[in-house]
Amino acid sequence: MNLFRKSPWIIHYDGASCNGCDIEVLACLTPRYDVERLGIINTGNPKHADILLITGYINEQSQPVVRTIYEQMPDPKVVVAVGICASSGGIFRDCYNTKGGVDSTIPVDIYVPGCAARPESIMDGVVQALDLLERKRKEKKTRRRAIAPTPTSEVPTP
Amino acid sequence: MANRTVIPFGPQHPVLPEPIHLDLVIEDEHVVEAIPSFGFIHRGLEKLVEKKDFTEFTFIAERICGICSYIHGMGYCQAVETVMGLEIPERAKWLRTMWSELSRIHSHMMWLGLLADAFGFENLFMACWRLREGILDVIEETSGGRVIFGAAKVGGCRRDVPDDLLARIPAQLNAVEDELRAITNVFRDDFSVRQRLCGVGLLSRNDAYDLGAVGPMLRASGVAQDSRLDGYAAYDKIAVEPIVEESGDCWGRTMVRIREIYQSFDILRHVLPNVPPGPVDMKITGAPKGEFFARLEQPRGEVIYYVKGNGTKFLDRFRVRTPTFANIPPLLKMLQGCQLADVPVIVLTIDPCISCAER
Q: Which domains does chain A have, with CATH numbers?
């Protein structure tokens, strides 16, 4: 199967959600859905992660945290907004404390609908993220080749 | 005196599915003080009563928290119904009782898994969550949702459950319960589990009472308090015995929750055959005028809803005091003097639900 050339590690952060999507993200990892059989691991360390799953919208206080996690992740990386709150603010969009969906703070690649998002749709989002991850990896490679200087045998003398 | 160091714990931390931040002041390996900071999930949904009308707000009340979602929706409806002087149909009361007990089982089983994860017993975590899916199946079959039920409504229930389905549920529950015994025996008897839980995070009876602990926290310290005894929904027709442990440590709290799971199974076995026939909702006319406090027992403890209506479709004020919020002062007390390595376990034993606490 070509799809799983790389087993992505995911990191999950709860922006400001009601918990519903969070427990569904965890349910994906557990035996009924079991994405770990595909090598997908929920890691706690942003520097090990390829895919960032964010649930819930962004508020004043979680904004810097989300931004820090995003910046700490190595390239290439994919951001998946899980649930309707993460996509647009959802039922809480009229609250005084909201900044809107996750895309108000960091670029989002994939939106997973649902309130709460079902594990099947979260997994579908992650599978689409895999494709995107592979594409981003190739793009990065070609970009790096274009920038890198042509190797020469000359050793610069001081 | 040893040097003091401050270690930040959270908001993004591997054992926490939700953000809470604690500044742990430590001296050698011992925590001297824990300073919490909040607001990572503050949504300000109490203010939304001014924008959504009182029937619509049920959906927001359900989304205060995704784990105990049904009881939140039901508590809000109960408060509004009392203000409006509605007497909901008998069948709706029994169905509400069924759903709140189902959500208690699902919440406690989820918590057992998270606790196992906190002390590094990955296998036990997976086993608990595997069994929990059996309960979620029942919930999905009866209400249509897995975590957010969407079944509460001012004046009754949004859905009726067919009688043949109600007759089928006990067999499904029995199957889950049989498998669950093997898992809870591990929590009860396993040497390494006991090493991590016994004597850790002690909370005396007086401290628990004075600091306002609620739910399993309070009951594990030897205080028999359970809001279900007040007899809301159909609890006035069911004998509920508060489950009490005397030890006041993490192990006691685990045992309280485990025994509550079995108690909920017993309650469900009593409720399911006795759901009376009839309608499940009633027509609502007018708007709430007046105020009321509703007290309910959530998986995490007692929750209070305050509703104040002014006779229009929009409420004046809605306030919810959630159990996790009440359990944070006892948590800070328990963290004083504990080992740094025990912090995740102690934080987990209050069953933190931060989106409840911060609303």
A: 9-146 (3.40.50.12280)
Domain spans, chain B: 43-327
pTM: 0.86
**B170 reaches A (C-beta below 8 A):** no
CB-CB under 8 Å, B129 with A26: yes
Q: Cα separation of B119 and B194, whole Å?
A: 11
By C-alpha distance, which of B10, B9, B1, B7 is closest to B26? B7
pLDDT band (50, 70, 90) for residue B284: confident
Q: Biggest alpha carbon distance in chain B?
A: 71
Geometric angle at alpha carbon A146, from A145 and A151, rounded to 5°: 65
Question: Residue A1: pLDDT above 50?
Answer: no
CA distance A87 to A104: 10
Question: Smallest CA–CA separation between B273 and chain A, in Å?
Answer: 29
CA of B350: how far to CAs of A92, B228, B232, in Å? 27, 20, 25
To which H or E segment does residue A146 belong? helix A119-147
**CA nearest B99: which of B158, B35, B30, B12?**
B158
Give B4-34 pLDDT, tens digit per residue: 888 887 777 766 667 778 888 888 888 888 8
A58 CA to chain B: closest CA distance, Å?
8
The domain at B43-327 falls in which architecture? Answer: Orthogonal Bundle (1.10)
How large is the ipTM? 0.79
Instruction: List pLDDT tens digits, range B84-106.
Output: 888 888 888 898 898 989 999 98
Task: Find the length of chain B.
Answer: 359
Of B13, B52, B355, the CB nearest to A17: B355
Query: Which of B37, B40, B69 to probe the A interface (max A CBs under 10 A)?
Result: B40
Please answer yes or no on whether A91 and B60 come within 8 Å at the CB atom.
yes
